[in-house]
Every structure is written in structure tokens, then in C-alpha cells.
Amino acid sequence: MRRISSFLVLSGFLSCLAAAPAVAQGATTPAPAKQKAAPAPKAVAAGTSAGASSAPPAAETPSGEGKAIDGFRSAKFGMSEADVRAAITKDFAAKPEAIKTQDNPAELTHSVLLPVPELLPNGGTAELSYVFGYKSKSLIQVGAVWSKATDSAMTPEKLFSNANILRAHFLNEGFKADSIAVNMPVNGGIVMFRGSDAKDRSVILLLQGTFETKENNQRVLTPTGLLLFYVADAKSPDIFKLPPGQF
Q1: Of residues 97 and 49, more confidently modeled
Q2: pTM summary value
């Protein structure tokens, strides 16, 4: 089963690249990695262009009370594993044997995983992960990944289409304007969208892939995966950390 990687643990991931990429054909499958809690990347101003012809400028964020991020569908932040399993069954009619588990030995978190066909209409099979905190043992993050590892029929074009559909959706959800980042090149991909609600709970959408420099020094991204995170506390996630002064 596919194991979702946390993109922000990669070295230098928060460093914006000087030139924005376009999307090319072809893909390779990224190596599996342990599911990890995902802190939020630095935001750039809403409407900042990535400079790629394939990435349209951001739309204005609607006014009003804005979007509240409390989990994903029936699974809410703070739920126990038993309650999340019941929510998964309700949302996806999942059989118990279809729900797998995974532990992260570095962060000492626990996850349950479920493959879901057509989580996004016509988007192929994704794998959902529900991450439970180190101390609280309650839900702190929900993630989804689309890649060749989750769906053998996945293509770079489909990944980019999925990313565009989700970005357009989130841009109209009413997140805090000063929290929104779009089309932000980073090491290993593009942050297609990042936004937070009034309680600083975040949504992060990453189009993951490999960069190649083409003519005129244009950096081209070949997508290999699309990662979506709903995060309860991106600044101080409930994961294991060594106490100060211990080493």
C-alpha cells in the first residue's frame, strides 16, 4: 500500500525557486515514505503568479466568515481512532479489512489508511490517511495522495488536472486572504494552494514531481504525485520531539 510522504521534511522545501515550472510529459513513481504530520509552508500573497503559462493567476478570495477546516467529511479533528473508523465506514462504505494501519517511528504517530476510487470525480484512485497525534491519540491530520502507486493508470496530465480542479475549488472557499499561497515553486514540486481558516487550521495542496531545465532556462516539472493535507495545527503538530537540553 502506498505510504504518503510529508513533503516539508525534504531539505530546503520551503525555499522558493527563482523560475516557475511548466508541466511536461512523463512521470516516475516517487519512493514510498512514512506518513508524517505536515507543517504549513510560508504563504505568499494571494494572486502571486508562478509565471508558468499552465498555471492561471489566483482568484480573489470571497469575503465573509470564510472556510472552517474541521477535518475531512465525517472525520473531525480531535476524534478517536474508533470514531474515525466509524466515519470512514459512513463516508466510503469501507469494509474493516480495507482499512490498514501504519505507525511513524520518528514522530510516534499512528495512521489508518484507505484507498478510495474516484475520491475526486474522474481523478483516479487516491489513498486517504488519517493521522493520530503522539500525545492526544486523536485525529490531527487527514491526507490524500494520487500517484502511480495509488493508481497504475495515473498520468502526469491527470495529476495536473486534479491539481487545477482542487486549486480552483479552494480559491473559492473563503480562506483568510493573508494565509493564501498559490503556484509557489518549492524543492520537489509546486505548492498549488495553501490556506488557513480563522483558527489557523490549514489546507495544503502540493503537486510533487521532478524538475528539468529546458531551453531559455525554463524549469519544467514532470508530476509524479499530488498530495492534499488537512492539518489541525501546522505550527505545533502533536508529534514526538526531544525535550530541550536532553542532547
Answers
A1: 97
A2: 0.77
Q: Which three cell numbers stand for residue 101?
A: 494501519
> What does the block give as the cell for 233?
495545527
Using CA atoms of 112, 118, 124, 126 in order, give the dihedral in degrees to the nearest 10. -10
Residues 6+ apart with CB under 8 A from 123: 146, 158, 161, 162, 165
Average pLDDT over residues 173-180: 94
Residues in the chain: 247
What b/e sequence results for 29-62 when a residue is b if at least 16 CB atoms lie within 10 Å of its CB, and e otherwise?
A: ebeeebbbbbbbbebbebebebebeebeebeebe
**Integer Cα distance of 135 and 156 in angstroms:** 38
Calculated CA dihedral for residues 78, 84, 86, 91, nearest 10 degrees: 110
**In the predicted model, is pLDDT for residue 141 greater than 50?**
yes
Q: What is the pLDDT of residues 37-54, one digit of tens each?
A: 544 333 333 332 333 333
Phi, psi at 160, each rounded to 5°:
-70, -40
